[in-house]
């Protein structure tokens, strides 16, 4: 089983969007990935009816409920020929990273012939420093799994002191861990931005929106263009 796990300690930066994009990209007419939402505060991913997302409460107070997560690992270990997408909330980031490290979950899955890939988000604007720290923390605390970095330009490009993320010290330090970079490009907020916000608010896939009479001809056209761009970027990353 190939496990895609989205982890970032900063909230509101596009984790659930990335989970939905992965689920759409991976899905085929005959097979959908297993989708889980562990966010105890904002279970956005579970709102996508197209994926039959299962909500999994892995927290007990401020810590991981080890038995619940043990059950999830058991499910992964006994699965075959499937892909899984797990969206995790900002509030679960620290305890979940601790659990994964203490139990060497990445090593366990790899030894059993399964794969786990971590996905982190870097976004521009005010959240840039926090998301970079979240990425760095992920690399430090879970050393045995490759990381895909998503550069979400919705709030601006990930640029600090005139340098992009790929020219930053933190990227240089951890670039051996980075399997791929995927860009979610900046778009015109009054057109493409509103269209994307509309499908995210309604928890729709691109295909559902394009088939819906609630979207105008030009909204559907722009969403088709966005899907092509994003899927092409994911294809380049070999996702």
TrEMBL record:
Residues 5-131 form the CobQ/CobB/MinD/ParA nucleotide binding domain. InterPro entries: CobQ/CobB/MinD/ParA_Nub-bd_dom, P-loop_NTPase. It comes from the Bacteria. Coiled coil: none annotated. This is Protein traL. The lineage of its organism: Bacteria, Pseudomonadati, Pseudomonadota, Alphaproteobacteria, Rhodospirillales.
């Amino acid at each position: 089983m190939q496990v895609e796990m989205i982890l970032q300690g900063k909230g509101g930066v596009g984790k659930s969007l990335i989970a939905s994009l992965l689920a759409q990209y991976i899905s085929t007419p005959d097979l959908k990935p297993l989708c889980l939402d562990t966010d105890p505060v904002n279970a956005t991913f579970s709102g996508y009816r197209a994926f039959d997302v299962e909500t999994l409460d892995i927290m007990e107070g401020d810590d991981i409920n080890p038995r619940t997560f043990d059950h999830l690992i058991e499910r992964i270990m006994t699965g075959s020929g499937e892909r899984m997408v797990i969206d995790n909330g900002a509030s679960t980031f620290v305890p979940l990273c601790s659990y994964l490290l203490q139990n060497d979950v990445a090593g366990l899955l790899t030894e059993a012939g399964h794969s786990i890939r971590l996905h982190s988000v870097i976004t521009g604007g005010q959240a840039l420093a926090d998301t970079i720290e979240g990425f760095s923390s992920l690399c430090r605390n879970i050393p045995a799994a490759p990381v895909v970095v998503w550069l979400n330009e919705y709030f601006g490009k990930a640029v600090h002191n005139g340098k992009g993320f790929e020219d930053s010290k933190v990227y240089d330090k951890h670039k051996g861990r980075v399997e791929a970079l995927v860009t979610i490009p900046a778009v015109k907020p009054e057109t493409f931005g509103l269209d994307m916000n509309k499908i995210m608010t309604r928890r729709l896939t691109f295909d559902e929106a394009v088939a819906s009479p609630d979207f105008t001809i030009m909204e559907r056209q722009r969403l088709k263009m966005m899907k092509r761009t994003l899927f092409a970027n994911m294809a380049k990353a070999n996702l």
